Automatic annotation (TrEMBL):
Highest rank taxon of the organism: Bacteria
The protein's name: Uncharacterized protein
Species this chain originates from: Lysobacter capsici AZ78
Length: 247
């Protein structure tokens, strides 16, 4: 499942695709380029005269619940391309080898070998993620805060998407299509796996939650399955279908 991370190019929180999602997205993005080239060869049109190519955008919306109208932006919405979190502002460093945070200017301290485990916890790959139907941004935040402690809003994300800090942990909340709320919690020991986090949210908020099932997830040839949790029931589903997002 996509992780909610600050994109320095878009200057806001964006769902960034995990590697399983990228495996689906990458061919769709390549096809976008091929389709534009084929159209231009056939018609002699300039780049700006080509009709918008939206199949990658539709796939992105289906995978993440986030409506993106520019397929070019999706190229940089891949979680694996982000560096670890800046220890000061909690935005991802622009690359894994960055020597300072371009967001706030804080220099990056390289961990000694003994600190490798602590260092790994700053990777954006760690953390738990869920998408919630039937609860507000505020309700999701209140439930998480109740579990991990008071949260203080960071101000670098304008508008609704927000990062919140709490002692060691930080939380990213994005409002998605169909009044879904995407929520990621990083560096908190409270939930070991996204499935634990999803169960907590579904029970506390009495709502429907989608999350990664980790190793338990059945593998399928044309994608992967998410864990759907609602009313104490759990089942494996393909990525959230559009009709559900609009329900
Ligand atoms: Zn971006
Ligand atoms: Zn920073």
């Amino acid at each position: 499942m996509a992780k909610n991370l600050h994109c320095w190019r878009c200057k806001t929180l964006i769902p960034m695709l995990d590697e399983r999602e990228w495996a689906l997205m990458s061919p769709a993005l390549s096809k976008t380029i091929e389709d534009i080239q084929a159209y231009r060869r056939k018609t002699g049109a300039s780049l700006s005269e080509c009709p918008p190519q939206t199949s990658a955008c539709h796939l992105y919306a289906r995978l993440t619940g986030f409506v993106e109208t520019n397929p070019n932006a999706i190229w940089h919405h891949r979680a694996a391309d982000c560096g670890p979190f800046c220890r000061h502002c909690r935005r991802p460093l622009r690359t894994a080898r960055a020597s300072f945070c371009a967001g706030c200017g804080t220099p990056v301290e390289r961990e000694s070998a003994e600190d490798e485990a602590a260092s790994a916890s700053w990777s954006v790959e760690h953390g738990v993620d869920a998408r919630v139907f039937g609860a507000s941004h505020h309700q999701v935040l209140a439930a998480v805060s109740q579990a991990i402690g008071p949260l203080i809003a960071q101000t670098h994300d304008a508008g609704d998407p927000h990062t919140y800090l709490c002692a060691d942990a930080h939380v990213s909340v994005v409002t998605l299509e169909g009044a879904q709320i995407g929520v990621s919690v990083y560096r908190s020991g409270r939930w070991a796996r996204s499935a634990d986090f999803g169960r907590f949210l579904a029970q506390t908020l009495a709502c429907r939650v989608y999350c990664d099932g980790g190793d338990e997830a059945p593998t399928v040839s044309d994608g992967y399955k998410l864990l759907e949790i609602e009313g104490g029931q759990e089942r494996w589903v393909m990525q959230v279908p559009k009709s559900e997002a609009q329900a």
